[in-house]
Write a structure and sequence with these properties.
Belongs to the Glu/Leu/Phe/Val dehydrogenases family. The record marks 145 as: Important for catalysis. NAD(+) binds at residues 189, 220. By secondary structure, this protein is α/β, with parallel strands linked by helices. The chain folds into two domains: 33-170, Rossmann fold (3-Layer(aba) Sandwich); 187-340, 3-Layer(aba) Sandwich (Rossmann fold). Helices cover 46% and strands 17% of the residues. It contains 15 helices and twelve strands. The strands form two sheets. The protein has a seven-stranded mixed sheet with strand order 9-8-7-6-10-11-12, with helices on both faces. A five-stranded mixed sheet has the order 1-2-4-3-5. It is globular and about 55 Å long. It starts with 5 loop residues before the first helix and ends in a 5-residue tail after the last helix. The chain binds 1,4-dihydronicotinamide adenine dinucleotide (NAI) and 2-oxoglutaric acid. The site of 2-oxoglutaric acid has 14 residues, from strand 3, helix 3 and helix 13. 2-oxoglutaric acid binds next to strand 3, helix 3 and helix 13.
């Protein structure tokens, strides 16, 4: 795994696209840095009565198009620069699918496996208490990311509402349905990855039915993507998690692998599947590779060994800029994270709309609206790719997104 700094990668991606746009450098400079980053030290009581300090962050990258929006990550390797990068990717993601949000992201430096449920609840409530003045349904709306889900979102909402003495379900998305969550939100990220895969195969004139697929990371995004891509008739031959990879050339059953992981805690030792390393998974000779774990999974060196024809990014930032250069040169098509995994934030947006209207949608409506957002965004991406003579779909996505953000900034009268 590469040591590339994700924040520098984001800035490089913005610069790559800016070269194809008629936007002044000072305005682009504004789009390469967060507007503000909050850094916190949370003191949380552990079950044995002692106090432990946790570093935590919330980065508000850009609010030109609406409230800051983006998930909260719990991971021991969270850094300030990682959170800044993730908040920037959120701003560009929301713009590329044209939903009325800016970008934000939060993180706590913690390995949640080492703490009890009660300790994690106190940690989450402490984070929500500290963030209360900076968030709100019209200000900054957090959501799930790595190692967080409905449980943490429900705690966050409850803390905010208690402190504000109000009901405000739209302060956070990704909640359980009983707390104001939306149908389809859990599956939304994987669903958009499936839609992006279907669209890019169609664009390339290749059949996804029968295509072989490898998925790195079998959490929320990866497991749903694997299942829905399998439902299209593709053959998922390898999946992995932090314990390693499993491979079966005849195809795995993603639903059965999910049950196995729920029972045993990992994908390892599933049936007769062969064990492989994560690096071996990334270089398998497959038609489609879906990195769905963390940043920097594929660097320039590894990119030379990638044998997939198409990569659809479920994770944020899984390819370094060097990897992008190598893959572009090798004619490997990459559907970028800011489009492919945008289903999560899109259904978060639908959840927020439902919270404002106090009117829940059916799952069928959520999925239909999601499909229409992702397929339209994909078409716009292809238009930008073909009309701007840009090297790859990532740069095309940034061209579309930067143009939209700059337009709102200009319309706000901020710029002569
Ligand atoms: N949850 C969501 O709604 C969204 C998530 N994403 C992105 O998708 C990616 C995954 O997030 P989630 O699925 O939510 O997290 P998760 O916590 O549900 O799952 C992460 C998975 O990655 C695995 N993993 C970690 N390190 C690995 C490694 N080195 N090799 C292989 N597997 C590894 C873990 O074992 C786990 O199975 C992240 O980049 C996240 O930012 C993007 C959009 C929305
Ligand atoms: O659902 C959301 O608001 C954001 C999800 C997220 O963190 C992401 O797309 O990376």
């Amino acid at each position: 795994m590469s040591e590339a700094n994700p924040f520098e990668s984001l800035q490089e991606q913005v610069d790559d696209a800016a070269a194809y746009l008629d936007v002044d450098e000072d305005v682009i400079g504004r789009l390469k840095h967060p507007e503000r980053v909050l850094e916190l030290t949370l003191s949380v009581e552990l079950d044995d009565g002692t106090l432990e300090q946790f570093r935590a962050f919330r980065s508000q990258f850009n609010g030109d198009r609406g409230p800051y929006k983006g998930g909260i990550r719990y991971h021991p390797n969270v850094t300030r620069d990682e959170v800044k990068a993730l908040s920037g990717w959120m701003a560009y993601k929301c713009a590329v699918v044209d939903i009325p949000y800016g970008g934000g992201k939060g993180g706590i430096v913690v390995d949640p496996r080492e703490y009890s449920t009660n300790e994690l609840e106190r940690l989450t409530r402490s984070y929500a208490t500290e963030l209360r003045p900076f968030v709100g349904p019209e200000r900054d709306i957090p959501a799930p990311d790595v190692n967080t889900g409905q449980r943490e979102m429900n705690w966050f909402k409850d803390t905010y509402e208690t402190l504000e003495r109000t009901t405000a379900p739209g302060v956070i998305t990704g909640k359980a349905k009983s707390s104001g969550g939306s149908a389809g939100r859990i599956e939304a990220t994987g669903r958009s990855v499936m839609l992006a895969a279907r669209e890019v195969f169609d664009y390339l004139g290749t059949d996804i039915e029968g295509a072989t697929v490898a998925v790195q990371g079998f959490g929320n995004a990866g497991s749903v993507a694997a299942t829905l891509i399998d439902d299209l008739g593709a053959s998922v031959v390898a999946v992995s998690d932090s314990s390693g990879a499993i491979y079966d050339p005849d195809g795995l059953d993603p639903r059965a692998v999910k049950s196995h992981k729920a029972e045993t805690g990992s994908v390892s030792d599933y049936g007769d599947a062969e064990a492989k390393t994560n690096e071996e998974l990334l270089t398998l000779d497959v038609d489609l590779l879906v990195p769905a774990a963390l940043e920097n999974a594929i660097d320039g060196d590894l990119a030379r060994d990638v044998r997939a024809d198409v990569i659809v990014e479920a994770a944020n930032g899984p390819l370094t800029p060097d990897a992008d250069d190598v893959l572009t040169e090798r004619d490997v098509h990459v559907v970028p994270d800011i489009l492919a995994n945008a289903g999560g934030v899109t259904v978060s947006y639908f959840e927020w709309v439902q919270n404002r209207q106090r009117f829940p949608w059916t799952e069928a409506r959520v999925n239909d609206e999601l499909e229409s957002v992702i397929t339209s965004a994909f078409d716009e991406l292809v238009d930008a790719f073909e009309s701007h003579d840009v090297p790859n779909l990532r740069t095309a996505a940034y061209v579309v997104a930067i143009r939209r953000i700059v337009e709102s900034y200009r319309e706000g009268g901020n710029w002569p």
